[in-house]
Amino acid sequence: MPSNAEQRAWGCICKDEVQAKFSTLLSILLSAIVAHCGPACAAEVLTGPARIVDGDTLEVAGERVRLLGVDAPEKAQICQDAEGQGYQCGVAVMDALISKVGSLPISCEARSRDMYGRSVSKCSAPGVGDLGTWLVSNGYAVAYRQYSKEYIPLEESAHAAQRGIWAGNFQEPAQWRREQKHGNSTRQNLLPEMPSFSEEQQQLLASQKNRLQQLEEQPKLDHPAECSIKGNISANGKIYHVPGGRAYESVRIDLSSGERWFCSREDAERAGWREAKS
User: Fold this and answer.
1) Which whole-number Å values give the CA distances from 244 to 36, 228, 250, in the listed order?
2) DSSP per residue, the chain
3) What is the CATH number of domain 45-190?
4) Which residues, other chains included, contact 256 with Cβ-Cβ below 8 Å and sequence gap of 6+?
């Protein structure tokens, strides 16, 4: 009959075997899950210059990206400033983001996809950091609590300091969208207590409407206008072509294959591209 010490040792061996088998089964199960969902399970990272679509939507590397956890006023949405003047806050937020990001390279880590097929991502830019943090901290967007609690403290801080849209009155973007969807446009897209517009306010809104129309009608580029250097990948390696170069017009950029646009020769060379021979 085994001694007590032998029984304890045997029990430890059995326990170790059970744990090892459990770990093996768990690894097999996880591998099967990843194999089943394929690339969707991996974190997709998009990089490159961004085209700003609106206050919380970008296009990066040819992909439409919705910023995770923040909600900015829509381009057609009207808010009130601190003096009670009406202004197109969605356009103002969009312009602020364009001015801040400019031609900076954006990096977006996808977390999911929304019902419109957009990549829901956390995005950052050099010298700016997380774009969601910048937007909410400056009062350009609210925390989208339905999808993330991360930005709630930043929203509360911006509200207390009356930064951005918090300086006046505005309607929550999600509520504004719901009312537009149900055709409830008689409220002028804002709050019930908003007064009728004066002639001066109407002129201001007309000019902002023209600005919105210009934004809608601008050509849809796959790169900012100022970033016109083509980073091409060929049998000769990574070559960049500047406007006016011999092969510039014939080169086509395929963002999905790792090719990209650059804003300067220095940017291209830092990234490992070399200039095409003229």
Assistant:
1) 48, 11, 11
2) ---HHHHHHHHHHHHHHHHHHHHHHHHHHHHHHHHHHGGGGS--EEEEEEEEEETTEEEETTEEEEETTEEPPPTT--EE-TTS-EE-HHHHHHHHHHHHHTTPEEEEEEEEE-TTS-EEEEEEETTTEEHHHHHHHTTSSEE-TTT-STTHHHHHHHHHHT-GGGGSB---HHHHHHHHHTT-GGGTTS-TTPPPPPHHHHHHHHHHHHHHHHHHHS---SS-TT--EEEEEETTEEEEE-TTSTTTTT----GGGT-EEESSHHHHHHTT-EEPP-
3) 2.40.50.90
4) 61, 62
Tell me the whole-structure pTM to 2 decimals. Answer: 0.56
> Which residues sit opposite 65 in a β-bridge?
58, 119
The structural domains of the chain, with segments of one domain joined by +, span: 45-190, 229-275
Question: Beta partners for 121?
Answer: 67, 110
pLDDT tens across the length of the chain (278 residues): 555 555 554 454 455 564 555 555 545 554 444 444 444 444 689 999 999 999 999 999 889 999 999 999 999 999 999 988 899 999 999 999 999 998 899 999 999 988 888 999 999 999 999 999 999 999 999 999 989 999 999 999 999 999 999 999 999 999 999 988 876 544 444 444 444 455 665 666 666 666 555 555 544 445 555 678 888 888 888 999 998 888 888 888 877 677 888 888 888 888 888 998 86
**What's at 268, amino acid-wise?**
A
d(CA 233, CA 216): 33
List the structure tokens of 4.
């007590």
Q: In the block, which residue shows the tokens 């990549």?
A: 119
The rounded distance, in Å, linking the Cα atoms of 192 and 73 is 17
